[in-house]
Amino acid sequence: MLKKITVILITTLTLTLNVNAASDGDLVLKKNDPAEIKDCSEGFNRASFSLNQGLDKAIFKPVAKVYRSLPSPIKAGTSNFLDNISNLMTIPNNLLQGEFKKAGVNTGRFVINTTIGILGLADAAEAMGFAKYEKEDYGQTLAVAGIGPGCYLVLPILGPSTARDTVSSVANFMGGDAWYNVTVKNDTQYFRDFDYYSSKATSGVDFRAKNYNSIENLEKNSLDFYASVKSLYLQDRQQKILNTSKIIDTQNDSDWEEFN
Amino acid sequence: MIKKIFAFTLIFFTITTNLFSIEPDVFVQSTVNRASKLLSDNISKEEKVKQLKLIAKDTVDIKGIGFYTLGSARKTLNDEQKSKYSKLFEEYFLKSFSSRLAEYTNPEINVNGKEKLSEKYTIVTSVLKGTSERPEIKIDWRIYTKDLDKPLIRDLIIEGLSLARTQKEEFNSVLQSNDGDINALFKTLEEFVK
What's the DSSP call for residue B132? Predict the structure, then answer.
């Protein structure tokens, strides 16, 4: 039985992920180009997207509305706390990507914010002049290693993803996320399962609240909201994988030639 | 005599070209200031939308963006369809653009740099100041500078996300789900601008 599952898993991965070593940033850029990523299960994705929209309207949007009305220090503190915890996932990924300096900086950030920043509620490291924090995950690490994104996916509740990013998130539950390890996986006397799941839910609410108007606006002004979200998500992933503040050439000049 | 006329013409054009050419970053900051002043004015939302549309018509390459948005499908259109599309796209763009912007009150955008990509394009970088409700947002402007006297906005890249590209992929999706039928896109646009 285990053998069968392994064979199916390997076959699925081979079919969905285009595994090739990337020679340079250009190849990574091209592989993660939103235009190159196929929507293999569009029917399922659209159904899942509708389900998520329903959940958003029933739960996330009302909660985010209340969250937005909280005093700024509470919102900033929550956001900082969640960012600080995410360092526990970012640091190992910095190391896996060979970004040793960033791993060192983020470790320093985590120590400072957990202590001086009172459990991460204040971003003391930023005040001390640390570089802007960039989150990393196992999907980004696989992308940097040259693994293509595979097909676009919309997961129920969790939202947009790709085959690569979905598969890579398994690493979080297999020891790759220290926050998960101390809350859910290991029975420590300091944390409970609830701490992990509530932090994930709060993270979703925090994101929804920060983008409250933008999402409303986008939905109102889209001809096809599903396609807009897909495009924005894949562009954002491409930016995060490349870790660059440099502007990605978003337009091919030849697209304009006829009417210049 | 001809030499004199030639010299005069040359000097005249040199002076007037420099006189009227506008740097992309100055163009963006002045456009932003115009919009920002309008949004903070104590006038009705309808009037704001009307005025915003005028600013957009004056500063955005709507026709260019429209055909860019259509992608390769534009090559299959006849002249009549192209003309119909241009008209519908302009209405769609202005409604969508003004509706998005009219929600803001007194947005503070500061231009902080520019990067010349080619003779035709310069990216102007700016920052939308954060408020208690949303964080600071980085906005880059792709400015078409082929005609230096009349620079035009061709794209807004918000935190690395291109609006023109998003729109292009959205239109492509509408076309694909209707077997490439341009009339289906026309219908969708007509419904939107109603």
Answer: S
Which run of H or of E encompasses A208? Answer: helix A193-210
Nearest C-alpha in B relative to A39: B173
The minimum CA-CA distance between B39 and chain A, rounded to whole Å, is 17
Structure confidence at residue B118 (pLDDT): 87
E strand segments, chain A: 152-155, 159-162
Residues B154-172 have pLDDT tens digits of 999 988 889 999 999 999 9
Residue B136: Cβ-neighbour burial (10 angstroms; 0-12, 13-18, 19+): exposed
- Are residues B120 and A260, on separate chains, in Cβ contact within 8 Å? yes
Distance from CA of B141 to the nearest CA of A (A): 11
The pLDDT of residue A31 is above 90: no
Residue A244 near residue B53, CB atoms below 8 Å: no
Q: What is the pLDDT of residues B88-114, one digit of tens each?
A: 999 999 998 887 777 676 678 899 999
**CA-to-CA distance for B108 and A250, rounded, in angstroms?**
25
Q: Using one digit for the tens of pLDDT, what is the confidence trace for A239-256?
A: 899 887 565 555 566 666
Which one of B133, B150, B187 would you mutate to disrupt binding with A, by most A Cβ within 10 Å of its Cβ? B133
